[in-house]
Design goal:
Layout lengths: L26 H6 L15 H18 L1 H8 L3 E3 L5 E4 L1 H9 L6 E5 L6 H12 L3 E5 L1 H8 L7 E5 L7 H10 L4 E6 L4 H13 L4 E5 L8 H6 L9 E4 L2 H11 L2 E5 L5 E2 L5 H5 L2 E6 L7 H6 L2 E4 L11 H15 L2
Parallel strand pairs: 3-4, 6-7, 6-11, 7-8, 9-11, 9-12, 10-12
Antiparallel strand pairs: 1-2, 2-5, 3-5
């Protein structure tokens, strides 16, 4: 009956295995304690989600440190390489470079690229000129061109072979109307290309540029020259002042173009204009440097209205070469 604790079965026999016994260590109590929450997948070192998270963090950190460089590089169409080659990327840029007869070695074409008129023209022109055609993956082209938008085309341009300044000076002395153009710190390759084109148009024997802190004959300069770079040699001078002094010692007159020149182009001395000449063009912003300016035999200026901004180096060179040709006629 109820409450009868002495009835059979109401009391546990000694030695029974049921229930907690002395010396159990409180296992039942530990089992009742709440367990810790399961870690997230990204917090488990060997979980695929954790590996993806670590890789993403590395990419983000690298992208932050290179963000400025990447934005600047993406706006360019060519990229210089340590091996001496330059890669022109993008369909329009590649086609324009091929049209301008930029010396090229290899045209890289992305596999399964969407073909249009520019791609077909690039392939046809490259094949006609004997340029190697290599079909490769998108990843391979991206490794070659870096951050430049390539649109499936990349043109490998070899390093330009510069002439020696002494050879150009000798060529100017041998010519009937010797003419060289020297650039003092022109940094825009498009200006360099335009000046090379003007120099070819007025019969110059060559163009001399500084070795440092100045534009070189990149693919952009080749394009702007419209093929003239294949006819007019370009030399690099280690020291422009010493090169100009060597030209003077050899018998060439050095004429510097400066906004504050002693005379205007229209008042150029005919005797000076008839001698073998080196026409020196200054940089886009600062003009001629002090040492180069002091080395020139005469400084001439382009007459302009007082409220007009100065001309860029390419335009100024074209005007000066025309005026010099008229004075020597």
């Amino acid at each position: 009956m109820a409450g009868n604790s002495q009835r059979k079965g109401a009391m546990r026999k000694t030695g029974s295995k049921k229930g907690a016994t002395a010396g159990s260590g409180g296992q039942r109590r530990q089992g009742l304690e709440p367990k810790k929450p399961t870690p997230k997948a990204t917090e488990r070192d060997k979980h695929p989600a954790a590996r993806r998270a670590r890789a993403s963090a590395k990419r983000s950190a690298a992208g932050t440190s290179r963000s400025t460089t990447t934005r600047a590089a993406s706006s360019r169409t060519s990229r210089p390489k340590k091996d001496g080659y330059e890669y022109v990327a993008g369909r329009n840029s590649v086609v324009e470079a091929l049209r301008a007869h930029v010396p090229a070695k290899t045209l890289y074409v992305q596999q399964y690229v969407d073909s249009d008129d520019r791609v077909r023209e690039a392939l046809t022109t490259a094949a006609g000129r004997g340029i190697a055609l290599i079909e490769t993956t998108k990843g391979d082209i991206e490794r070659l061109t870096g951050a430049i938008v390539h649109q499936g085309l990349a043109l490998q341009v070899p390093a330009y072979e510069y002439a020696e300044p002494s050879d150009l000076i000798a060529a100017a002395l041998d010519a009937d109307s010797g003419l060289l153009v020297a650039l003092d710190g022109v940094t825009d390759p498009r200006n360099l290309g335009a000046i090379v084109r003007s120099a070819a148009g007025f019969g110059a024997q060559g163009v001399i540029v500084p070795e440092r802190r100045a534009a070189g004959m990149t693919a952009s300069a080749w394009k702007t020259s419209a093929g003239a770079a294949a006819r007019v040699p370009v030399a690099r001078a280690t020291n422009m002042t010493r090169t100009l002094k060597a030209a003077q010692k050899a018998g060439l007159a050095v004429i510097g173009l400066a906004a504050d020149g002693d005379v205007t182009l229209s008042g150029l001395d005919p005797d000076l204009g008839s001698a073998p000449v080196v026409l020196v063009i200054g940089s886009e912003g600062k003009g001629l440097s002090r040492l180069v300016s002091e080395t020139c035999d005469v400084l001439v200026s382009i007459p302009m209205s007082a409220d007009t901004e100065s001309l860029n180096a390419g335009v100024a060179a074209g005007i000066a070469l025309y005026a010099l040709a008229a004075a020597r006629a």
